[in-house]
């Protein structure tokens, strides 16, 4: 292996160690499937390897990483919708469980939040996923989504307002 490939391998391993969990969390928030998320993670990091990180081939590897994750999630979501529509398999199912203890209540709370998040517009949901769950700054979110930091901040602010209203309708908060 050449020196450049060794350097790329080391930089990619460092990116994976530092950001792999955050990218996984972001992808899972968008794809809602562990299998799809794992496949998407592999695609994103393979793309990084093919592009090469050493020698400045990618000016901002972290921004590129989240942008690649964003693009991969959108692509997979579009393909999934096409498959569902072609198969006529868009069906909703509901499961009604009575909470029996604090763990069940916590699960119910998480499900309510997840349901509220699913009702947000995709652009707002992406910003919430990156800000609240991946702890990215608005500047990092802006770079990942190719928007301005002000747009990222306003989408986040609007999303929080909508979430608050949605959760109040479900009986959470005052």
Secondary structure topology:
Blueprint: H1 3-31, H2 34-51, H3 61-87, H4 102-118, H5 122-133, H6 138-145, H7 149-169
Helix pairs in contact: 1-2, 1-3, 1-5, 2-3, 3-6, 5-7, 6-7
Short description:
Helices cover 76% and strands 0% of the residues.
From the alpha-carbon coordinates, what is the Rg to the nearest angstrom? 19 Å
Largest sheet: none
| Architecture (CATH level 2) name of the largest domain | Orthogonal Bundle
| Terminus-to-terminus distance | 61 Å
- Number of beta strands: 0
Order of helices and strands: HHHHHHH
What is the count of helical runs?
Answer: 7
CATH class of the largest domain: Mainly Alpha
Q: What is the CATH homology-level superfamily of the largest domain?
A: RNA polymerase sigma factor, region 2, helix turn helix motif
CATH topology category name of the largest domain: Rna Polymerase Sigma Factor, Chain: A
Oligomeric state, counting identical vs distinct chains: single chain
Question: Which features does this protein show?
Answer:
2 domains; single chain; mainly alpha; 0% strand; 174 residues; 7 helices; Arc Repressor Mutant, subunit A; Rna Polymerase Sigma Factor, Chain: A
